[in-house]
Amino acid sequence: MQGSNVAPRTSAAGNGLKLVLAWGFVGIPLLWGVIQTLANALKAFR
Amino acid sequence: MVLSFAPACRIARQAQNSSPVIRVFEQDGAGNTGRVRGHMAGFSFLRRESTVAVPSYSRWLIPPAALCVHLCIGQAYAFSVFNLPMTRLIGITQAAPQDWTLTELGWIFSLAIFFLGASAAVFGRWVEEGGPRRAMFTAALCWAGGFLVSALGVYLHWLWVVYLGYGVIGGIGLGIGYISPVSTLIRWFPDRPGMATGMAIMGFGGGAFIASPLSVWLMSLFSTPTHVGVAETFIVMGVVYLCFMMVGAAIVRVPPPEWAPIGAGAPARATRLITTRNVYVYDALKTPQFWLIWWVLCLNVTAGIGVLGQASAMSQEMFRGRITAVAASGLVGLFSLFNMAGRFFWSSTSDYIGRKNTYFVFFALGTLLYAMVPYAGAIRSVGLFVLCYALIFSMYGGGFATVPAYLRDMFGTRYVGAIHGLLLTAWSMAGIFGPVLVNYIREYNLSRGVAPAQAYNITMYVMAGLLVIGFICNALIRPVRQRYYMPGGEGELEAGELEVEGAAALGRR
User: Do the Cβ atoms of A34 and B247 come within 8 Å?
Assistant: First the structure.
């Protein structure tokens, strides 16, 4: 029984890692761009 | 290798030929071999059949795949950062007589937007039937290729090559890339189609935030006292975008037959069925619903795009002495953030209140806000002006992001990407109407002696009037007649599609 749970657990962990990598891949540049824009906007108001 | 990518195909190697040629034979459900597809087996990994997800695949990988494409093609909104540097490619510090003018350069963006709409309309069915990976792959080649060809044009100082590169080739990449993930997202998120497409289309709005500082940084990196560095920037951006978009093409998958999200259901307040069948792409053009939605999008975008390009000048002229040029540029950045956030917020909201209701909010609230802008100018309230504009831009973006789900509600999932492609001609049209309307009315007012601070008042009322027409168009949208649906099984819901129930009163079918 224990052995049969290993595959789904590994699969879930693998999926989790893929999700983190995929979202990080698009999220980090987007966040960087948003921060740059916000910083420029705030600079303009000072 | 080929077999592993093409399980539905039988591969035959022509042994007698000295150079081995691989032919792909299509099989029908009974295993009968069909016609030869050609010598494209090497590209079989691009085919829809090769992108069917395994059971353990998470549907939450689809939005990042879509974002990989949309974040890249969203660079189009930031193309203006190249305009000034490209006017001094020869003069370097200032424009020389042989340098390109801003008017000539303005055509690059206009061509790209025109080819976005045209290619989305022309290639929509091809995208839909070939699957998302082939479309993303093609979009990546066109988009990156457009940059590389443009780099050559800049290097040789041949403007027509830049028109061809960024405007035509890149524009085709824009159109194919824009619609490529739409139907895939809707199939994976039948319970939240608005949110799913909103995430991708938010990326199109957000792409400029990345591209703008990146372009400026790259140009500063490559510029020398004798060189502006635009060509090198184009090359680097083309290569980066190619890699980024290819990641999206690699991770995208279509749901397997019979797939449905586990435990997912319609939003809590949903009560009524929206669609059960599909309309063929070209039959959708025969329905009044398509053209009403076309006008709904066109009017919403016309109003938004018209003031988008004038936001900086308008704020400075309406609040002379209070909003400087630098502050105005900051305001434009802030409005762009609302444009991006609105894409996700409003499309996600539409899953709860219904598409029709969402557009009713856009048109009713938008009319009120446009009409309030002159009042904000009259009482010199910068805060009210900023609030009005922030909401207007959020709804401008929201209009783009909510429309794919609206089409899905009306015409089903099967050809929604292709129908969306046809609908994007409304965007191309609005891209011409909006700015022309705003500029023409302003010039007319100034020529009649109206003070610059009040020159935009009539523009705002005209835009409010356009939104009233949009409200009426939206109100006229009714369920699609039975005769337009695809016959038999073709018209039924596809595997993986839930009967999503829509929302209250006006949003119902």
Answer: no
